[in-house]
Amino acid sequence: MTQITLSKTNCYYLENENGNMLIDTGYAYDKDLFLRQMGDAGISIGDIRYLLLTHHHDDHSGLVSFLAKENPDLVVIMHALCAHLVSKGYNAKEYGGRWCSKSMQTLTSVYKKFDKNWTLTFPPYFAGPHDLLLDFSRGSVPFLDYTIIPTPGHTPDSISLLSNDGSLFIGDAAANFLQFAGTHYAPPFITDTSRFYATWKELLTLPIDRIYPAHGKSFSPDKLKKHLYSLKESKMPLFTGD
Ligand SMILES: [Zn+2]
Hints:
Elements lengths: L1 E4 L4 E5 L5 E4 L7 H10 L7 E5 L5 H4 L2 H7 L4 E5 H7 L11 E2 L2 H13 L17 E3 L6 E3 L2 E5 L8 E5 L3 E5 L17 E2 L2 H11 L6 E4 L8 H6 L15
Parallel strand pairs: 3-4, 4-5, 5-7, 11-13
Antiparallel strand pairs: 1-2, 2-3, 6-12, 8-9, 9-10, 10-11
Bound molecules: zinc ion (ZN).
């Protein structure tokens, strides 16, 4: 596994004799950094057969349309709902949600005043017939040596990938950054807190050895057990979308 570390997002590249897979891309403005990191790792865009999008957010799907243009054979794997949301080109607000903590809400509102790139938009991507859209009507989906698991809560279209060596690529269904802001291994924003923790409970039944998040360093699944239900909705400010 090769980690591609972008401005705020970790992407992961998994080699597989049946097709190499990239998990997530970064922001659209991460393009030069992405190309440099890939070059340093000796990976060219044409080497990527599958691109798994953990969900539609701008810091995950910013380079999808670019990569699909550069590599017409690329197969994008995503939740069917993600395919719909990623065609709109912005982070969905219609599902509501809450900040994980008051500190995170404050931190974000200060930060976005200084970051001109903070638009919550991305170049839209329109899925083609060769892409793999998953509806999970029969639960998790086996794919190559992996299992693709629906992990809703952060967003309704969130998915994760478990490899047969016990590595779980979790997207934003958990995170390991800004712990001082009271995140308790959650991402800054959660659309549905009870689904979010139901996802963690389900993950804790699986043979997971190590968790690789899109934000922050990898961690042990024990952290999910320890921080399960640590966030209380009564202390989580409502997300108003601005
Ligand atoms: Zn996200």
